[in-house]
Design goal:
- This protein is mainly alpha-helical and 257 residues long.
- It has one domain: Rhomboid-like (Rhomboid-like fold, Up-down Bundle).
- Helices cover 52% and strands 11% of the residues.
- It is built from nine helices and five strands, in the order E-H-H-H-E-E-H-H-H-H-E-E-H-H.
- It has a three-stranded antiparallel sheet.
- Strand 4 and strand 5 form a beta hairpin.
- It is globular, with a radius of gyration of 19 Å.
- The two termini are 15 Å apart.
C-alpha cells in the first residue's frame, strides 16, 4: 500500500486560503474536544438523532458482541440536531485520525481548490462531507454511536483529484522507500481498499467495523469524483491542466511508473 507524503503542485500560483482555513478549523475544533470531552458526544453526528430529529442527552444502551450491553454517553448538542452534520466534519476521534486527514487535505486540497476556485471549493468540501455522513447514516439509521471526522470531505477531495489530475505525480512511501507514482495508482488503490473493507461492514455497525466509517469514505469519494467530472465538462480546453503535462526525468525521483 502506498502512503502519500506530497504531490506536484509547481503550477499552483494562488494561495490556497480555503485549504489553510480548513486545516486551522479542524485543529481548533480538535483542541476544543481535548478540553471538553463531552463536546464530542453533543456535536458529533448520531444517526438516530438525524433520523428522529430528537437530541439524545441520556446514555444509550448498545449491545456489542463479546462485551454485552454498554452505555454510549450522550450530551446536549446544537438547538437544531441536523447542524451536527456540519460540526462533525471538523471533529476527530484522536491524534492519528486528525493527523491522517489533515495530511491528505494538505496534499490534495490545494490542487482541487486551484481548479475550482476558493468559494466553489469550500462549497464542494462541505457537500462532499455531507454526502459522506448521509451515506454512513443510511447504513445504520438507528445507531447511537457518534460519527465524526473530515473523512467524507477528504475522500471527496481525493475523488476530485483522481478525475482532475490522474497523471499528477504523488510521492509516497512504499516498502520503506519514497517512490513517485501517478495519482491514479495511489488513489485507485485507496478507493479499492475502501470498497473491499466497506463491503465487509455493510451488515455491521461502526464498532464492529473497527471504528472506520467506510460508507462515508465511499460516499464522499463518489460525490467528489462526480463533481469533478462535471467541472471538467465545463472546461474542455484546460490550458494549465496537470493531466496533460509532460514531465522531464528528475534524477531525485525514484519512479515506479
Amino acid at each position: 500500500m502506498f502512503f502519500p507524503i506530497s504531490d506536484d503542485d509547481r503550477e499552483i500560483t494562488t494561495v490556497s486560503y480555503v485549504t489553510y482555513g480548513l486545516l486551522a478549523a479542524n485543529v481548533l475544533l480538535f483542541i476544543v474536544q481535548l478540553v471538553d470531552p463531552m463536546f464530542t458526544y453533543g456535536w458529533s453526528v448520531i444517526p438516530k438523532e438525524i433520523t428522529s430529529g430528537v437530541d439524545l442527552i441520556e446514555p444509550q444502551p448498545l449491545e456489542i458482541p463479546g462485551q454485552g450491553v454498554v452505555q454510549i454517553p450522550q450530551a446536549p448538542g446544537p438547538p437544531i440536531v441536523w447542524l451536527t452534520l456540519l460540526s462533525s466534519m471538523f471533529m476527530h476521534g484522536g491524534f492519528g485520525h486528525i493527523a491522517g486527514n489533515m495530511l491528505y487535505l494538505w496534499i490534495f486540497g490545494d490542487n482541487v481548490e486551484h481548479r475550482f476556485g476558493h468559494a466553489k471549493f469550500l462549497l464542494f468540501y462541505l457537500s462532499a462531507g455531507l454526502v459522506g455522513s448521509l451515506a454512513q447514516i443510511w447504513m445504520d439509521r438507528d445507531s447511537v454511536i457518534p460519527n465524526l471526522g473530515a473523512s467524507g470531505a477528504i475522500s471527496g477531495i481525493m475523488g476530485a483529484y483522481l478525475v482532475l489530475f490522474p497523471h499528477n505525480r504523488i510521492n509516497a512511501i512504499f516498502l520503506y522507500q519514497v517512490v513517485t507514482v501517478p495519482a491514479v495508482v495511489v488513489l485507485g488503490m485507496w478507493i479499492l481498499m475502501q470498497l473491499v473493507s466497506g463491503y465487509g461492514s455493510i451488515a455491521a455497525t461502526t464498532v464492529s467495523a473497527g471504528g472506520v466509517a467506510y460508507l462515508a469514505h465511499i460516499g464522499g469519494f463518489v460525490a467528489g469524483a462526480a463533481a469533478a467530472a462535471f467541472c471538467r465538462m465545463q472546461m474542455p480546453n484546460e490550458p494549465d491542466s496537470v493531466l496533460y503535462r509532460q514531465y522531464q526525468r528528475d534524477p531525485r525521483d525514484r519512479r515506479l511508473w
